[in-house]
Amino acid sequence: MRLSNKKGLDIKAFAHYLKVNLLVALAYFVVGKIGLLIALPPGYSAAIWPAAGIAIASCLIWSKYSPWFGILVGSWLININIGGEIHLGWLPLVIAAASSLQAYVSANVIRRIDPLVTLDRPNTVIKSCLSLSLTCMIATLFGNAALAAHGTIPIKDVFGSTINWWLGDLLGAVIFIPLTMLIFDQRSIWRSRRIQTGLPLFVGFLFCVGIYYYSDMNQRQQLQDKFQIQSNAIISNVESFQVSNLQQVIALASLFDNSEQVSQDEFIQFGKRNQLQLDGFRAWAWSPLIAATDKDSFEAATRAEIGESYRIRYLANGQPNPDGWLVPIKFVQPINTSRAALGIDLNGEPTRAAAIAKVRATLSPVMTGKIQLAEDPNGPGGTLFIAPVFDRLGNIKGFCSAVIDLQSIINAVEQVKGLHWRLTDMSAGGALLYANSQKSFPQFQGNIQSDKMGQYYQANLMLADRHWHIVIYESYSELMGDTFSLSLLMLLLAFITCAVVGGMTLVSSGERHRIAEKVAEKTMALSKEIARSQTFQATLIESEQRYRTLFDKAPVGHALKRLEDGQFVAINQAFMDITGYTLEELQTLDPWELTPIRYRVSETEQLERLKQTRRYGPYQKHYRHKGGQMVAVRLNGSLVTAANGEQLILFIVEDITEQERTVARVNLLAQVFQQSGEGITIMDANDIIVDVNSAFTQITGYTRDEIIGKNCRFLEAERTDRSNDARVRAALEQTGFWQGEVWDRHKEGFDFPKWLMMSVVRDETGSVSHYIGSFTDISERKVNEERIHFLAHHDSLTLLPNRLSLQSRLETVFKEAFVSQTQIAVMFIDMDHFKNINDTLGHHVGDMLLLEVARRLKSIVSSDDIVARLGGDEFVVVLSDTDHDEVAKVAEALRSGLNQTYTIDNKPLHSSPSIGISLFPTDGDSVEALMKNADMAMYRAKAAGRNNYQFFTAAMNTLVTERQQIETGLRQAIARDELRLHYQPQIDINTGQMVGVEALIRWQHPE
To answer: Which of 63-67, 330-334, 641-645 comes out lowest in average pLDDT?
Structure first.
């Protein structure tokens, strides 16, 4: 089955496929079930199988829908119940596959013989029938082989079943292929034959079936009568056998009734005289009734009487009866096969004991249920007839018993071969006495019951006090034996006659249809010729009018020009609109006034091509409009011949001015796209890259061919934050635009940052059709930003953290120490006499000295500690998680390291450090306090002679505070008028004369 690529047509084609196969499966199943009504026993094949013809016809009519699948399903449904049994294994599937294959092959062979499948000629009908006789063996051979392999039919029946199956499929195909074609083939040849062929075929088929049913019912009645007579004879034989046995046991009991003492010889002679062994007894015995207390004396007396060893025994699991009585077997015959029974206590085994108890209660003969015989423990078993023996006072003195072997009854029943039967003991709740097969027997009323497969017979047997039930079954095939079925012969002859008549009607009706078609074809051709001649003139007029209308009203320009001189002969309104000229104006116009002179060469080439190929263009150029503007046009032309033989050129002219502008605009946009300095990516709605520009290649390293068709995420670097995707999608959906920084990976493997701007392109329905992304590489800008950030937080000379960075880092360290309650130290370091070196030797020497100081600082302290430059020669070191002793060690190391001689420009220089130290939490509870106190301690170190370190103390703070107060007070003294001028004379000691005056300022502080 071929399905279109379009989704809608796929569904429609599949629906047709499913519909046809379901109908074929249903038809095969229904017709097959009807065909099984006339199936031959045991129901594996039918005298005619209409489903075979329907299957082949469906393959001929609906071959494009693969109806073999429907045939497979329908046949499988039928064959899961064949022969009256349910089969769910491989068997029905094999038969169904063979039926489907037969239909497919047969249809293809018929199509080769008659490609049109009309079956309207004698040779095609005969060849088709002969081919069907061969192809219809496919299902026959495979099906019967499968049935034989499965064990459903015996090997001896395979040949007969094969012949019947083949005939049924062949007749079904010959009759029902044309019937199905007549109903479902919609071609005219089959529609026309529905009455002539279809009706006789269908009526003939029904008539054949009627004949079959009539003859089949008669034959089945005869078989039923035969089976009933046969069953009655079997039941009578069994009943007479049992009655005779009961009479013999009673006669044996009478022997003991009439004698005081019966010897073993008399017992043996009675059996021989009455021919007990010939009447079906397995064994007969005498068992006296003995009190349990007399057991030993009885055993001794019996041994003496019979002259051999004797003791009372019990069967397996047997034991003395609690009633206190023993019933041991004293005499038994025939002794050679029943010696094992001597001494067995019948009253010690439950089944026999129950029968003895019933005899003692009823004083009548009793028959036991089924027992396993001691003489034959592995046999089918048997029953016991037990009759009482009386003394002269009427008391029971013992029992005569006879073993009835079930094998004797089996032999009596199975004298008739092929029977299935079951014998049950209804007195024992329906216990099974014997069954010769596993066949299940139905329950039914009356003596006789029949079904499609055979006959059943049941009867109730009353034997002594027991109620037995027997059911007998025999199949029709066994009842018929080797005799031929008259109903089958009549059916085959009727079907063959029907098939022959059907073939003849097919040929005759096909020939009639073919002749009718030829007459209709000739009549139609003549009518068409007359109508054609009548309408020819009108057509010419109408054609000319239509051409004139099409020429004048065409939406594109049409023009006719003479090939010889290029003069316009005719133009339409659209051409006038394009050029602005009328026909009269064009006829007087110089050609190069309409077409610019620059097209001279190309016009010459087009005319040469026209003369060679009779085609002009397609060709694009410009017309100069009557108003002066240029009009872009596309020309297509061909060489035509006028009625007078003149050569004309027919032009079709399209105004493509707007297209030309669009193309120019597209080209401009393409140039902008390619020449843009920004990388541009165009993606479809699924984020697949469809185009990139040159800048994209330069920035990412990927060529256009390498990247087109890949998802845009192919470029993403691992560091890209995927959590932003939802925000980006939302922005694009709401505003159609988003911009931001992302990271991509270059083709060479390194990551680079880019600034990306995304825009949405929507189609006419408002759905997203594309995304456009433009980006620039911001790697250099990022580097510059990082450099600016670094310089903003680091000293430009030493590259150590500057005052701003120190403040931020120290606050972080302070917070951590505050939370963890650990100690930190802040060291202010000032290089002694640095100003002198800087002023005398130059700033470059001072800078080199500072660089060396920074290097020594970083080498002395830990990498986890902070080293910063505040400016000039001032440095700060911050130690975390330390103590007083550790700080002192570091301070001494710094003093010693920075005090070493410096070699700058091959000149030895010396500068020592003055170090002030403050500690958290003892010396301050804030960053500002620690910095201020460390600065105080540093000035204290300088005052102490430099080249030393000083820890901050509270006294330092007091001294500084007092000094600041004095300085502040002095600055405010003038404004407050707190200064007083005093003059003090200077006296010469020798002369006592005043030689001068001292001017003194005294501060009159309010406090």
So the answer is: 641-645
The answer to whether 556 and 654 are in contact (CB under 8 A) is yes
Over 89-140, what HEC string results?
Answer: CHHHHHHHHHHHHHHHHHHHHHHHHCCCCCCCCHHHHHHHHHHHHHHCHHHH
Residues with Cβ within 8 Å of 460's Cβ and at least 6 positions away in sequence, in order, are: 426, 467, 468, 469
Quote the CA–CA distance of 644 and 514 in Å, as a whole number. Answer: 50
> How buried is residue 774: exposed, middle or buried, by Cβ count under 10 Å (0-12/13-18/19+)?
buried
Beta carbons within 8 Å of 200's beta carbon, 6+ residues apart: 501, 502, 505
Q: What is the pLDDT of residues 618-661, one digit of tens each?
A: 888 888 888 888 888 888 888 888 777 788 888 888 888 888 78
Q: What is the mean pLDDT of the chain?
A: 80
* pLDDT at position 83 over 70: no
SS3 912: coil
Q: Are 978 and 949 in contact (CB under 8 A)?
A: no
Residue showing tokens 């003194």:
1000
Report, in angstroms and rounded to the nearest whole number, the Rg of the chain calculated over CA atoms: 65
The upper half-sphere exposure of residue 457, i.e. CA atoms within 13 Å in the direction of its Cβ, equals: 20
Q: What is the Cα 570 distance to its own chain's centre?
A: 70
CA-CA-CA-CA torsion sign (573, 575, 576, 582): negative
Question: Do residues 180 and 54 touch, judged by C-beta distance below 8 A?
Answer: yes
- Residue 787 vs residues 569, 772, 858, 882: alpha-carbon distances, Å: 81, 33, 22, 33
Closest by CA to 51, choosing from 138, 176, 139, 136, is: 176
pTM here is: 0.40
Average pLDDT over residues 306-328: 86
What count of other Cβ atoms lies within 10 Å of the Cβ of residue 368?
A: 27
User: How far apart, in Å, do the first and last CA atoms of the chain sit?
Assistant: 120
Give tens-digit pLDDT for 467-503.
888 888 877 666 666 555 555 565 566 656 666 666 6
